Amino acid sequence: AKVLLVNGPNLNLLGRREPGLYGSDNLDTLVENARQLAQQSGLAFDHIQSNAEYQLIDAIHSTDAQFIIINPAAFTHTSVALRDAILGVNIPLIEVHISNVHAREPFRSHSYFSDKAQGVICGLGIQGYEFAMQAAIKHIKAK
Ligand code: DQA
């Protein structure tokens, strides 16, 4: 079984992008932590980060994962296309945000993903990805 981690636009800048909001750890650290958690549980793991909507959509279309953990970043608030990609493949998902999107500009409170997610984690920094991985592993093992 496999978990696919999807990170949206600007998350490649993690560590140097608004560190007060997003912390000082970079994307590689985050991804390697998640990969380790998957491997410890005997699960395969894939990751994509892209700044291009179509690349995220294509990765979702072509994945053989049983579970998706996604931080759609700014596409959270804009992308019907990415939402439809996930609905199209019918793979369960957890939505993660590093910052507390509800404590920021009002436009960040709306998500095109939350009503379709098993759960939503926000505001806990990159630790949120660890919690999401734990939940995904539990979900897969329960099957
Ligand atoms: C984010 C929150 C979004 O509003 C923002 O556009 C991001 C990152 C987060 O992880 O906190 O790029 O998804």
From TrEMBL:
Which CDD domains does the record match to this protein?
A: DHQase_II
**Assigned EC number:** 4.2.1.10
**Which parts of the sequence are marked as the site Transition state stabilizer?**
17
Q: Which Pfam families match?
A: DHquinase_II (PF01220)
Q: In which pathway does it act?
A: Metabolic intermediate biosynthesis; chorismate biosynthesis; chorismate from D-erythrose 4-phosphate and phosphoenolpyruvate: step 3/7
Residue sites binding substrate per the record = 71, 77, 84, 98-99, 108
Q: Where is the active site?
A: 22, 97
Its annotated function is as follows: Catalyzes a trans-dehydration via an enolate intermediate.
The protein in question is named 3-dehydroquinate dehydratase
What is the taxonomic lineage of the source species? Bacteria, Pseudomonadati, Pseudomonadota, Gammaproteobacteria, Alteromonadales
Q: Which gene encodes it?
A: aroQ
